[in-house]
């Protein structure tokens, strides 16, 4: 409320630009309610907010993840000016997307296209992102295909959002088709594009294609991040390729990227699938040395790795170690421990 109070006493004389600055400041401070208070004060003073004030208020709602309120402000703006501007439409579409209301986001986008306002790159990217968050990869691709007809050239943001939409819904082949087709469309993939593609391969258990995407990253000089490596390690783990998983983990360390619990757990799980209990235990020890706290998944993989190789005493030792490091065993851990004892005849 403090920021809104800057202009409350001077609304009659204040310009739309001044009010817009106040509303924008509220939005940046994540004070969406204060931003709406400024807008309400303008109406209360019998003045009419300008387009910029409305747009700033919608943007504040977007930043505050209040998509329903963004729609209300847009509706109020329509009653005053009959036709909202492109910035207001874009902010509302973005807000609906963040709120999971992808249908409403598309409704606004098509409403915008049917009016005198022409959707731009931001409009389409916000719509595709809304579809991505809603798991609607077909609709995301539909929007991407409509862009050239609207004389809007897809960029790395819109293409990456479409790849991510495919990844979230398990359409890994289409995700790779988009990813590898980006250069032909004069769009240079970035780390987000590749990470989404590699993650799609991981979900589709296509470890070979995940490694192919990694090699393409190297060719295009895109530096992998932790998300890229984790997805690649997990893809190899699901494919039973423990050596390749560990190779990526080693490469991650050489790149001076600190592995997290996801990285180590995927590596341990890969070793478990390959019955490499010694390496699994080594990774478990490295977790603690790296300041990463092992969890149930970490211990489950290590115990199972020992159990598969008949190392029941080590498996039982790991099981007994869990409470000491504040990890509460679950059913999977108990079953792995019992199975190890059974195989060792220590019933």
Automatic annotation (TrEMBL):
PROSITE patterns with a match to the protein in the record: PPR (PS51375)
All copies of domain PROP1-like PPR, residue ranges: 196-345
Natural source organism: Symbiodinium microadriaticum
Keyword Repeat: yes
Keywords per UniProt: Repeat
Ranges for the PPR repeats: 85-119, 225-259, 260-294, 295-329
Superkingdom classification of source: Eukaryota
Lineage, opening ranks: Eukaryota, Sar, Alveolata, Dinophyceae, Suessiales
Name of the molecule in the record: Pentatricopeptide repeat-containing protein, chloroplastic
Keyword Repeat: yes
InterPro entries cross-referenced by the UniProt entry: PPR_rpt (IPR002885), PROP1-like_PPR_dom (IPR033443), TPR-like_helical_dom_sf (IPR011990)
